[in-house]
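quick one, four chains, predict together pls
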Amino acid sequence: MSPRSAAQPQNMRTVARRAGVSSATVSRVINGSSAVKKETADHVRRVIAEMKFIPNPSATTLKYNRSNTYGLIVPDLNNPFFPEFLLNLEEALVKNDQEVLVATTQWREAQLNSSVRRMLLRRVDGVVIMASEVETRSIEPILEHRIPIVTIDRRKAEPGCGDVCIDFESGMQAAVLHLKHLGHRRLGFIGGTDGLRTSQIRLRAFQRALQEADLSFNEQFVRAGNYRVDGGDAAMRALLGRADRPTAILTVNDLTAFGALRALHAYGIEVPTQMSVVGFDGIQLSDAVHPALTTVVVPLKEMAKKCLDALEKLKKNTGRRGPLFSVEGTLVVRGSTGPVSRSRS
Amino acid sequence: MSPRSAAQPQNMRTVARRAGVSSATVSRVINGSSAVKKETADHVRRVIAEMKFIPNPSATTLKYNRSNTYGLIVPDLNNPFFPEFLLNLEEALVKNDQEVLVATTQWREAQLNSSVRRMLLRRVDGVVIMASEVETRSIEPILEHRIPIVTIDRRKAEPGCGDVCIDFESGMQAAVLHLKHLGHRRLGFIGGTDGLRTSQIRLRAFQRALQEADLSFNEQFVRAGNYRVDGGDAAMRALLGRADRPTAILTVNDLTAFGALRALHAYGIEVPTQMSVVGFDGIQLSDAVHPALTTVVVPLKEMAKKCLDALEKLKKNTGRRGPLFSVEGTLVVRGSTGPVSRSRS
DNA sequence: GGAGCTATTGTATACGTAAACACCAGAACC
DNA sequence: GGTTCTGGTGTTTACGTATACAATAGCTCC
């Protein structure tokens, strides 16, 4: 039934024997070394195909402590932003016969630590960490093993650890200017989980964007969310409970904006005629809700590439302070933003 | 700076030497063998912690051809259903220090083949395949290597390959009965990509549910989608272009329902007063749209567990025809379904 | 008290690879 | 024609683990 009936050992030596060459030559062919004569290489490749030989990378991992695998630690696979990033990372890696090892933290530190351990066990060649709050203490074990790390939005580099950050400032600025042109003057903001560094950064970006647009910041128009739908929903309800309201709401990410939209629907407030809403991330589903979300689209492919570039640089000269990259989002205007309503302004 | 300054070799032998035992004992402790005296085990564990020793699974993979890694092949990480399943699979695996290796096919056969190869390279202990169309030819290489496979919704088992299917029949039936009780008699259906086996299965389930509910099937009320938002949107528009319309639409999955909702919004048709919509899958975002989607929630945790159970069984006795499991969804009624409108019925 | 048993520990080994190094034939050069 | 170089290939080796097997001490049982 099965072509290989009696589980013959399959390794480079058996291939070499069949091809009449040495195992080193087989290895060279497989790794695309240019030192092999073309005819020899072709012949070896033919034998490999004939035998359906599949090399065993764990031997390499064992001997040379490199796995051709990169780790990705994300907080939450339920937020489509992360699987979409994973997809882009996978695409970039698979091209070079590399793999990605995903671990989720569920926003819990215990799970972050367990994820870090998983990365060490599997001897990954580098790690991309998107976990919200990354304290140096948590990633220390990785650094000790001299494995390159890239964090996202930590905006801090240390020896062995680079960072790729999303330029919230420019994104927020584009969104704020867009709203200003539509006549909005009273802008609100629904942030991330209170106390998190990333939430702080994004709120600051909002404040700064207001400043640059010559609009005033009103602390009463700001509420914390939790990066998820229910957080955006609750925050929006809190904002709607007040007598004076903003005419437009910016949010920390698309899911939060979804929550805000849901709360507005529940309150019978029309979007965008009575309230404009802007998201951030540009997840694929952002144009599946009604009204379609105006949002700042983060270029995931570019981000994935920069992460890998950063890891590459770190591998070249570990020990030195890691590289800092930044990616810029693009405001995509859709149905959730519109001219400010006459009635209130 | 780094605790381990001059990269001492770290392996079970060095641990054993420090602990005054043999490497076999260290191995036994790490693998939780009960054959070790408790005091010895405790002592070894202390030394392991002291040395921050991390075992190297690639040695095991190399020697025993088992990687403690399971593969997951999905068509599309942009559909939240798949990352949500991945999350559940990961949770179930990580408990036992096992990993999951994800590969996406993007609905393309070339990518399925490349994914299969990746699984073989990494010597996975089993594979869960959710790719829509799985022809035996594509997975043959895995079968030849005697690696257990579970497919999803293939509803076919062969030696070495089991299947876990979602019981569309019961889910559709619950949805149809729900709509019937609301007074609907004219039910439409937006299916998956035309020609795919899974699409066929789901359409049949719909037809059968109609039959059992004593409702008539109207082929004009059926359109194909593509499992994505745009497909649902286009299909809904096609249905709305007709003079006589159904009063309720069932869909092949939640994304398709999202698309249908979007088309309905665009046509100014109110949901659920003028048209009811039912999804399938129960992705987390199904209650983030407006109106919140009535949908059949698939129990992902149970599904993940059954997949692993099936793989386990296959490992025990490969060669025999694989096990067939089934999971049942639960209808969750939300805002997208309501009583049929008087005007049309 | 010896045979048999159990609990606990130790010894030795093979898995497949990439790279360091060795080797050789032929070309190039004076 | 000897020397040097280079393109192409072969030989050898170590990586860290789980397990089969061996070994020992202490115990039970008649």
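The CA atoms of residues 273 and 329 of chain B lie 26 Å apart.
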